[in-house]
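STRUCTURE:
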């Protein structure tokens, strides 16, 4: 058992798995989520439930903030019943959300001025990685923070990259990752829709590409959602509108052209405009299906 108390804010698709693995590793975990059923699930695993971010943060040595946006981060830390109302001095705040690098740097400064420490630690690996404790963490922070976080990071991650001492580096690397992830999902949808429109069997097309040079991790992971017609949101269309928006905003700031990211962003915007914003991000294929009058969904073959 660890003697460190962990507060955990955000028990969604990835946060729930991370909190569960921290419990398995022997940490005492107190979790908060706006969904009562998520808090109840954590309690069922042996964790403690909190009715607010402030309650989750009380007595914590480490506070994970596993929310979706910078705005949500602001709310759970600084808003009414926010974590900083009760968070002990010296606590490490682990920022796992995908946020603009400038925001991560600014937040680290604010937390330092208030007597806290921060690890800029966005994650990748999806629900499967979170549940298996095999996430990739792209982290930047001071040596003492890494030392104090080592056991907790090992409990949730298969790979931890120590990218530097300054906040913002982790978020910069995650931003580049999300550029590729968003482009790959949009490209996978486009390829599957084109092949289907041209007469290829969608499942055969998926099998061939999965074993050919055009494959990507996102293709292998997301196309089965399209084939099954299952758009249960593991990561929603709206998430990539946000993440590719961060990419494009940074490009504007740096005067750096991003035509491929921009085109992909437009496809996710089109999917949201068509009413699919809260569906799985693979629902971007529905834009192509509607335009071409096709369906990529394909029943599994028997035998």
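SEQUENCE:
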């Amino acid at each position: 058992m660890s003697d460190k108390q962990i507060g955990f804010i955000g028990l969604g698709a990835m946060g729930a798995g991370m909190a569960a693995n921290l419990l398995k590793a022997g940490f005492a975990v107190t979790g908060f989520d706006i969904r009562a059923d998520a808090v109840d699930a954590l309690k069922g695993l042996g964790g403690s439930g909190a009715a607010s971010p402030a309650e989750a943060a009380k007595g914590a040595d480490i506070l994970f903030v596993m929310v979706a946006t910078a705005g949500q981060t602001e709310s759970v830390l600084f808003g009414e019943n926010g974590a900083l109302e009760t968070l002990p001095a010296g606590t490490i705040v682990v920022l796992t959300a995908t946020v603009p690098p400038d925001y991560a740097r600014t937040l680290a400064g604010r937390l330092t001025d208030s007597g806290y420490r921060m690890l800029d630690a966005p994650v990748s690996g999806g629900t499967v990685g979170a549940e298996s404790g095999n996430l990739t963490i792209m982290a930047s922070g001071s040596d003492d923070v890494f030392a104090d976080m080592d056991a907790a990071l090992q409990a949730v991650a298969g790979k931890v990259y120590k990218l530097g001492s300054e906040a913002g580096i982790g978020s910069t690397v995650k931003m580049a990752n999300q550029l590729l992830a968003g482009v790959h999902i949009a490209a996978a949808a486009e390829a599957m829709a084109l092949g289907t429109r041209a007469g290829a069997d969608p499942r055969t097309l998926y099998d061939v590409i999965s074993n050919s040079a055009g494959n990507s991790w996102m293709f292998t992971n997301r196309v089965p959602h399209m084939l099954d017609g299952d758009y249960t949101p593991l990561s929603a269309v709206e998430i990539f509108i946000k993440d590719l928006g961060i990419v494009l905003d940074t490009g504007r700031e740096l005067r750096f052209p991003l035509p491929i990211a921009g085109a992909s962003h437009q496809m996710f915007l089109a999917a949201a405009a068509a009413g699919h914003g809260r569906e799985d991000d693979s629902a971007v294929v529905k834009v192509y299906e509607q335009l071409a009058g096709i369906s990529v969904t394909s029943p599994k073959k028997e035998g």
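REMARK: The mean pLDDT is 96.
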